Amino acid sequence: MASLFTRPRAAARRRTASPLLYLGYGMLAVLVLTAIIAPIFLDHAATTLTSTANSGPTHAHPMGTDSLGRDMLARVLVATRETMLAAVFSTAIAAVLGIGLGIAAWLAARRVREVILRLIEFWVSYPTLLVAIIVAAILGRGLAPAVFAIGLANAGGFARLTANLAAGISTREFVVTARLMGVPSGRIATRHIVPNMAEPQLILIAQAFAGALVELSGLSFIGLGAQSPSFDWGALLNEGASKIYTNPILIVGPSIALVFASLAALFVGDGLAAAANPRTNLRRARMLHHSGTELAPLTPDTLLSVDHLTVRHDDSGRELVSDVSLSIRRGEVLGIVGESGSGKSVTASVVSKLLAEGLTATAARAELSGADLLGRVSGRELARRVAMVYQDPGTALNPALTLGNQLSDVLSRALGSTRRAARQNLLERFRDVLLTDPEGRMRQYPHQLSGGMKQRAMIASAMSTRAELLVADEPTTALDVTVQREVLTLIKRMNATMGTSVLFISHDLGVVRALCDRVLVMRDGRIVEAIDDVAHMTPEGVVHPYTRQLLEATPIVTMPGRDIEGAAR
Ligand SMILES: Nc1ncnc2c1ncn2[C@@H]1O[C@H](COP(=O)(O)OP(=O)(O)OP(=O)(O)O)[C@@H](O)[C@H]1O
């Protein structure tokens, strides 16, 4: 078991680390090594006065010498330590202060929170450099006040980001549940809220670090930062700028160093943020043919034929679906049952061409009404052929749009009809699925409808494209028994009146028995039994012990005479 779980995770980490992250690490390593080594070996050359003042590039001084004859290359390399340390400290001050304040705003009582939020808004409304200059001018000259001033100036950005993210995350179900279970606020903040901000915070830290390098140089440039005899890249730029017309090489070194360090920070920040999100950088789903298998010709009434389908998880190489074959005739309702994780949804995702990233499907054939599902099928063609109804209609609907807007938009794109015609079509389908006040529903947002109503709306949307195949992935699991029955009735009606074939996925054999013509039983990614006479299946009549177990364990939904067919009439 351990190897099954540890290997894929290590592989995922390896794969999600982008080449830019490695480049950033490499650049950062160069900077760190320079910061450690240069002051040890080059301090003498960087600080000793010589008679060759204001020299241009020579063999002995590739970046020239300053007005006191000190080697400019050595000075740039030695300044790496002071500049990097200053940038690290100011970024740390900004991140700790800002994230702390953002979390404090979220933990505080409502009124205090409002005050903190207004304060943060005021803070970020001024440019960072301006705030840093004002603070540094108040604190006095020197690198330490400059570091603190820049940290303080950048903290506002962290505070705003943290407060905004915390406001969103704190309403999510897992936070609400933790609160109900009595988890203290501080622990909710550290365990549930902060880890969910990792990606944007890492990007902001990288940006703040890159910004701090430039801001520190800016403060040194105007004489507020590093004071002689200490020097950072900004101070060197300041010195070089005064000789820009007579000896321009002097500003090249500190400028290159600044750009190099900023890029290193951005590459590392972006790369770490991407790696912190397991969904980024996944390889696109692949659907491939495998050859060498003899295939029987399809009969004219075959709508869908999937032969020898295998789906693998790219990282672990694990087979999620193994050698599955299925077919659906026109007008037929095929059920797939199986316990959780048996591969039902992954199989359905191949049929609807919605295979998840990081998975590879291979099949000898996957054809839907003549269209090769393993090849290119345009979105519009696919929408005309396949409609989907999901387990949780709430996640399939956009909470920011009214039902009318989002469903008619999809419909007009799928059918190429005008928006007006699409709305009219949808309105009629809303009536077909017996949604009360269909005009009013068109203007409502998803959260204003019950789960059953949302599922009816999804079925209406599926009906409106007159798709040849409806893929219904556990469409009744999230609904109560009465609504379940209504939804099953609607699907059966769609099948009976429009001739739509249905691939119906469920873990409930009782529900499947009430609706389907044939059933496939899946276990561990394989089809272990195919039942053709669904209405009369009994524990004694099935072959596979797992099907028998399922049948014995499932309370059969009583629909006398499969009365959902009656309802369809
Ligand atoms: N995107 C993915 N990446 C990696 N593994 C996945 C992915 N999607 C599904 N799986 C794995 O594939 C297997 C089959 O999952 P699938 O969702 O098809 O199960 P299911 O039979 O539909 O289960 P349920 O009834 O719980 O929805 C599971 O082991 C699951 O962990």
UniProtKB/TrEMBL annotation:
Record organism: Gryllotalpicola koreensis
Regions crossing the membrane: 20-42, 84-108, 120-140, 202-224, 244-277
This protein's name: Dipeptide/oligopeptide/nickel ABC transporter permease/ATP-binding protein
Residue ranges of domain ABC transporter in the record: 304-549
Annotated ABC transmembrane type-1 domain residues: 80-269
Tagged with keyword Flavoprotein: no
Topology within the bilayer: Multi-pass membrane protein; Peripheral membrane protein
Top-level taxonomic group: Bacteria
Transport in keyword set: yes
Family statement: Belongs to the binding-protein-dependent transport system permease family. Belongs to the ABC transporter superfamily.
Major subcellular site: membrane
Keywords recorded for this protein, A-Z: ATP-binding, Cell inner membrane, Cell membrane, Membrane, Nucleotide-binding, Translocase, Transmembrane, Transmembrane helix, Transport
InterPro entries: AAA+_ATPase, ABC_Ni/Peptide_Import, ABC_transporter-like_ATP-bd, ABC_transporter-like_CS, MetI-like, MetI-like_sf, MIP_CS, P-loop_NTPase
Subcellular location: Cell membrane; Membrane
A Pfam family: BPD_transp_1
